[in-house]
Amino acid sequence: MKFRFTPLNLFTAFLVAVAAYVFINGASIAGKPLEHWGGTIGWIFLLFAFVVFVIDIMFRNFFVETKRIWMVESFFIVLVIVIFLLVK
What is the pTM of this model? Predict the structure, then answer.
């Protein structure tokens, strides 16, 4: 099987790295450490990574060409960012 890098694949790796960082160093918001919430926040990042991984697999099953996968996943990321900013 040929391994292809995609935007969601790279974002999954980023989320796993952030979860590992939170597990090792703990979490803090605005300089104030969250002593008891570090593990929970780390598990939330791992859950997000799993969801993004599943979405990446779904897009890979629908689109065969790497160029089209990059286009669709990039549009998906932009759409999620726009929806996040509108809700915020």
Answer: 0.80
pLDDT score, position 1: 55
Q: What does the alpha-carbon distance between residue 25 and residue 70 come to, in Å, rounded to a whole number?
A: 33
Instruction: Kindly give the parts of the chain with pLDDT less than 70.
Output: 1-3
Inter-residue long-range contacts of 70-79, CB under 8 Å, 24+ positions, other chains counted: 70/6, 70/7, 73/6, 73/7, 73/8, 74/7, 76/8, 77/7, 77/8, 77/11
Neighbour count for residue 64 (Cβ, 10 Å): 8
